[in-house]
Specification:
With 229 residues, this protein is mainly alpha-helical. Helix content is 43%, strand content 9%. The protein has a domain of 95 residues: Cytochrome c-like domain (Cytochrome Bc1 Complex, Chain D, domain 2). Strand 1 and strand 2 form a beta hairpin.
């Protein structure tokens, strides 16, 4: 009985199991051939342009193509001359391209302390920490020439640099340059303003600025509110 059972099992393997394995092996081999057929040389040497490499597709043998005349990249229209150049009719403007709020002043002060104060100092007198260590001293913002300079002048200097100062156009976005210019104007006003410049009804603050270890300390003393004239 056991012998007959073994014979039937062997017969099942011969008629069903082995052909199934054979078909599976053939199918696996076919799939492998399909995958190998996909591994062409074009996957390594694709017909693409590599920047700054010669390419004979064009007559000038350059892979990099010049932009079509009159095209402007997305986000680079810059159709507001005052905002992007600081000038109106070719002259440095003495106006801002957008309203300056208290939040803008705070942002301008933060950016000024990061990028400008190492040379100009937090007071704006040109005696920053780098200058104290031998770097060329920039002019004080309280110099009569800069006191009369329009805000567009400060925007242009930040954008294009001047003298020993490199431009900061890569580090400081356009809007932040205007905020820094506004803060510079506030620094100038802090040293030259009088009680007559304070709106009627507002308290007059007396500031005695001094710089200690790179930080500005302001001693404030409130006086009587100004009277309307």
């Amino acid at each position: 009985m056991a012998y007959v059972l073994m014979e039937r099992i062997n017969d099942f393997k011969t008629r069903v199991y082995k052909p199934t394995l054979r078909r599976a092996a053939i199918l696996l081999g076919a799939l492998s051939l399909c995958l190998l057929a996909g591994c062409r040389e074009d996957m390594q040497n694709q017909p693409k342009f590599i920047p700054l490499r010669e390419n004979d597709f064009y007559r000038d043998n350059r892979s990099a193509r010049p932009t079509i005349e009159g095209t402007i990249a997305r986000g680079q229209l810059e159709d507001d001359p005052l905002l992007y150049t600081g000038k109106v009719n070719g002259q440095e403007a003495d106006q801002f391209p957008f309203p300056i709020t208290e939040k803008d002043f705070a942002r301008g002060r933060e950016r000024f302390n990061i990028y400008c104060s190492p040379c100009h100092s937090q007071l704006g007198d040109g005696n920053g920490m780098i200058v104290q260590r031998g770097f060329k001293k920039p002019p004080s913002y309280f110099d009569p020439r800069l006191m009369k300079a329009p805000v567009g002048h400060f925007f242009n200097v930040i954008t294009n640099g001047r003298g020993a100062m490199a431009d900061y156009s890569a580090q400081v976005p356009v809007a932040d340059r205007w905020r820094i210019a506004a803060y510079i104007r506030a620094l100038q006003l802090s040293q030259t303003a009088t009680s007559g410049d304070v709106p009627a009804g507002q308290p007059v603050m007396s500031h005695a600025p001094e710089q200690t270890f790179g930080e500005v300390k302001l001693a404030e003393r409130a006086t009587e509110p100004t009277e309307a004239k």
